[in-house]
Amino acid sequence: TLLLSALILTGCSSNNPKSNNENTKAEIKQETENQIEKITIPKSYFDFVGTKPEDFVGNTKSLKNINNSIENESIILEVDSKTKEDYLKEIDESIQTFKEIAQIEDIEANEKNDDIVISIPKDSTAVSKLHATTGIPALYGQKQIFEGKTEWSVKVKVIDSKTNETLAEGTAPNRIEMW
Predict the structure, then answer these.
(1) pLDDT per position as a tens digit, 58-85
(2) Which of 98, 106, 119, 146 is most exposed, with the fewest beta carbons within 10 Å of its own?
(3) Could you give the count of Cα atoms lying within 13 Å of 95 in the half-sphere of its Cβ?
(4) Are 106 and 161 in contact (CB under 8 A)?
């Protein structure tokens, strides 16, 4: 009976170790999903895009119902892993939308999202140029911020899609002049 009691108390691990392991993995996954992470979008980001922190959350679909506060003209978001994942997907969708609207032919980004090359026709509209020099770099900056980088920067090179001539170059959050 002592052996039987020991087996019951240990959850019969010798009979079904996989079950206990799966339960533990599920519990860890649930705990990870429920953990709240604080993400700070700095003043430099808002200066670059020309908006205010209070406007950011209200205009962002997946961030509308989360806790946030504004400190020193930066916004501090409290997000769980699901919200963070959803927002990173939303950024990727926005990059694709900007790419289509601005008639950008290609965007190459390194793994850290801090070095991008944008290929666009030289004779693009002013709106397309603005997307290439501000909108797209800002979105890659957001990706960096949401992936944990506290001081964001994006090296940007805009090239003519026909000749590969450099049209604009710079590092956000500094202004990147349009051609």
Answers:
(1) 666 667 668 888 899 999 999 999 989 9
(2) 106
(3) 22
(4) yes
pTM greater than 0.85 (yes/no): no
Segments of the chain assigned E as strands: 37-41, 67-71, 74-79, 106-109, 115-120, 154-160, 166-172
Instruction: Determine the residue type at 12.
Output: C
Residues 126 and 8: their CA atoms lie apart, in Å, by 72
Burial 152-170 (b: 16+ CB within 10 A, else e): bbbbbbbbbbeeeeebbeb
Backbone angles phi, psi at 17, to 5 degrees: -65, -30
How many helices (H) and strands (E) would you count in the chain? Answer: 7, 7
Sign of CA dihedral 86, 88, 94, 95: negative
